[in-house]
Amino acid sequence: MIGRRPLLLGFGAALATPRMLGASALPQGSAQGAAQGAVDLVLNGAWRQGGYALGRTEPRALILVDGEALSTASTDGLFIVGFDRDAPALAEIEARSGARSTRRVLDVAPYAFPSTRVDGLPPATVEPSDPALLDRIRQEVAVKTEAFASRAEADDFRDGFIWPLETYRISSEWGAQRILNGTPARPHYGVDLAAPAGTVIRAPADGRIVFTRPNMHFEGGLTLIDHGQGLISAYLHQSQLDVTPNQPVRRGDPLGRVGMTGRATGPHLCWRLKWRDRNLDPSLLVGARAPRRPA
Ligand SMILES: [Zn+2]
Predict the structure, then answer these.
(1) I need a labelling partner for 94 at 20 to 30 A (CA). Which of 34, 138, 198, 233 fits?
(2) Which helix (H) or strand (E) holds 147?
(3) What is the CA(191)–ligand 1 centre distance, in A?
(4) How far is the CA of 22 from the centre of ligand 1 (A)?
């Protein structure tokens, strides 16, 4: 965690106040969007690059992000929106229910991602050239893409995440620019948790398993969990897989064990998270909690 900046893990009003637009900006409007023409819209979260907003609105309200309809709130009115690594400084979130709607513009804080070198990787895992291997990689990309397209009807992100390992050391921060064997590569879209091989990996939240495969070229033993609304977490380099596709899991359930399969130089869990096509830092969801309805 050394060198890590303080996280903008604000909750409700503790964080920057969202600018209010549209119907909810009327003088009579309240933060709960009580004005006629508005809908409830309460937001918290880690509003930064690689972060997210958790929201509460009306059940089944349509959620638009920067004008694009991307999601639907759950039957409890909960939703999540992710901000990718290169997200612009502002994000507009709109909740719409019939003819009524409320819009907010959030400040998405920039983050200075570090640059890290990884040397000594087998060349075939950095710049593969063998045609049979390229074929295999293409096939693996296709099955992963299909799994990441899963959209469970759930809001299993509502109580945030717990860490998937009980003890670990963060060996590589999320979002780092990578120099692999001396060549600049894609940013690292995982947070690496170093732990002894065989350490039990646990589900950080409820969800449904959408993919497991033991020997992916890059990822090694890989498991994907669908937490709902396009939020899918991933567990790489496993030495053992203990769940199967379509299996529901509860927070804390064992998924498998830490290993160093695939592109890895030592035993660790590479923990990843996507919201739709955006890559997020899963550690930012640890301890989060979606806004609840006032009692
Ligand atoms: Zn990693």
Answers:
(1) 233
(2) helix 131-148
(3) 6
(4) 42
Indicate if 186 and 280 belong to the same structural domain.
yes
Question: Is the domain of 90 the same as that of 231?
Answer: no
Neighbours of 23 (CB within 10 A): 17
Domain hosting 34: range is 19-107
Do 61 and 196 lie in a common domain?
Answer: no
Query: Ligand 1 centre from 230 Cα, in Å?
Result: 21
CA of 250 to the centre of ligand 1 (A): 24
The answer to whether 220 and 261 are in contact (CB under 8 A) is yes
280 CA → ligand 1 middle, Å? 13
pLDDT tens track for 33-45 = 445 689 999 999 9
- Residue 274 to residue 65: CA distance in whole angstroms: 16
Residue 226 CA to residue 224 CA, distance in Å, equals 7
Domain assignment present for 248: yes
What does the mean pLDDT of the chain come to?
A: 89
Tell me, yes or no, whether 197 and 255 share the same domain.
yes
- Give the pLDDT confidence score for residue 241 in this predicted structure: 98
Last residue of a domain, one of 88, 107, 126: 107
For residue 249, the CA-to-ligand 1 centroid distance in Å is 23
Query: Is 70 a member of any domain?
Result: yes
Query: 264 C-alpha vs ligand 1 centroid, how far in Å?
Result: 8
In angstroms, what is the span from residue 40 Cα to ligand 1's centroid? 38
Structurally, the chain folds into a number of domains equal to 2
Query: For the segment 81-116, what is each residue's pLDDT rounded down to a tens digit?
Result: 999 999 999 999 999 999 999 999 999 999 999 888
